[in-house]
Amino acid sequence: MENNIFLNCFRWKKVLTGIRSDQTIFDRSGWSKIPDDSLRLNVLIFGFDSLSHNMWKRQLPKTYKYATENMKGIPLNGYNIVGDGTPQALIPILTGRTELELPDTRKRKGSYAEYVNVYPFIWNDYKKNGYVTAWSEDMVNVGTFTYRLKGFKEQPVDHYMRTFYIEASPKFDREEKFCYGGMSRFNIMLDFMNNMYEVYRDKPKFVFAFHSEYSHDSNNWVVNADDDTYNWLKGFNKKGYFNNTLLILMSDHGSRFAEVRNTQQGKQEERLPGFIFVFPPWFEKKYPEGYANFLNNANKLTTPFDIHETLKDVLHFRGSGKGNLINRGISLFKEVPGSRTCLDAGIEPHWCSCLEWTPLAAQNIIVKQAAQYLKNYLNSLTANHRNLCAKVRLHKIIWSAKLIPNKHMLKFKENSDYDGFVGKMTDKTDILNEIYQLKASFNPGDMIFEASINYHTKTKIFTTSEKDISRINKYKQMTQCIEKANILHHLRKFCYCVV
């Protein structure tokens, strides 16, 4: 018998990463060590660079749907940035202050610059109170605290991924795009969060992971993260990790690319990044008022300063109730006043995304055209059922208004200084879409409708939809034919029965 031995020798060289079990951290942390007035929650923040609220929906649809529907996450629809770029988004979240309110840490100040450790990071408070802490961001060349700022002298958290990315990043160019060692680089970050929960399963955790590579330079690639993030959420959920975790899915700001930023829509989206809070299933029952306030605040003007106050409340809960406009930051467990303005919230005029309704006369030519369009649209909805529903006629324009964007926002072109503190207000942004609101009465039946109507200034085309139209007076007996038909309920508010 002949024996053959084949040897295939090769050299393998990669940089590996994982969470090392540290006995010192184990001894220092624990649920028994956290404050008595805490909400007893892990905090897990997972962010994407440069994704607006709308871009979350467009490019991460499975993730967004699972987080908001299956997990009952609460999106902050009125979340507004307070400055330009990632530092001006994350510094207020993590410290409650702006960069200008903190010691100077800019590299260009040389020996006068302090290390970023001088900032009062909230993860330090969590660490002092029994939490294991972690911070990870993937693009070290544009790091939040290291690109323009001096960075950290001492490691800022218990587990810090910068060391891995510094060592591994030079090798990325030799790999397939977005890959490293046979896996996607995005999954390295997901594994980082998985490992934190596996190693410190029974310990309170404050984990912040921020991914930039897919979305920093373009929003076209981030769609690749949707399936992975969706599966990661499902896996975490199945393991029960979210049963005692406050999950925050977020972004720093919307797209800042020139071709997008030069449009009104782009300027608006830049100022409105995605932000979703997901609470454990038991939280609503245990803290009904705080949870109700969160739901109510979803459509209020909110900022990074509010996120900071909310994170403080997770560690030391100060109750719910009503927020005070005197305070720049308001915990989202409190009710944010509906009268809050950008000035109240600490938002400079050119970063304010709030819109103003300017009343218009009924004789305004666009208003009259919009009213005629609304009449035609209403009739188109019932056209196939003319045997049941009368054709309506415009009777009177009761009220009309036009939605006006913030003029400071439209004028903002870019920053005129290296640090992003001073804006160049020279832009002349074309407004391609105008939004009008109309309240008008129609005969027969004196039906009163309120509608939001879009007007494209170049094509001169009006558009609206059924969901953007409200019937604001009583139907009385005029819709009985629809009720009897029992199959056309969606037409109830639009129909005046002829039989």
Q: Would you write up a description of this structure?
A:
This protein has 499 residues and is an alpha+beta fold. It folds into two domains: 23-351, 3-Layer(aba) Sandwich (Alkaline Phosphatase, subunit A), CATH 3.40.720; 356-494, Nuclear Transport Factor 2, Chain: A (Roll). The protein has 17 helices and 17 strands. It has helices at 23-28, 53-59, 61-70, 86-95, 122-128, 162-172, 185-199, 225-238, 258-261, 264-270, 283-286, 288-297, 304-315, 342-345, 365-382, 407-411, 480-485, and strands at 42-48, 74-75, 132-137, 159-160, 179-180, 183-184, 205-211, 245-251, 275-278, 356-359, 393-404, 414-415, 423-424, 433-443, 447-456, 461-463, 469-471. Strands 2-9-8-1-7-3-4 form a seven-stranded mixed beta sheet, with helices on both faces. Strands 10, 11, 14, 15, 16 and 17 form a six-stranded antiparallel beta sheet that branches. A two-stranded antiparallel sheet has the order 5-6. A hairpin with a 4-residue loop joins strand 15 (447-456) and strand 16. Helix 4 (86-95) packs parallel to helix 13 (304-315). The N and C termini lie far apart (99 Å). The relative contact order is 0.13. The model is unreliable at 1-7 and 422-426 (pLDDT under 50).
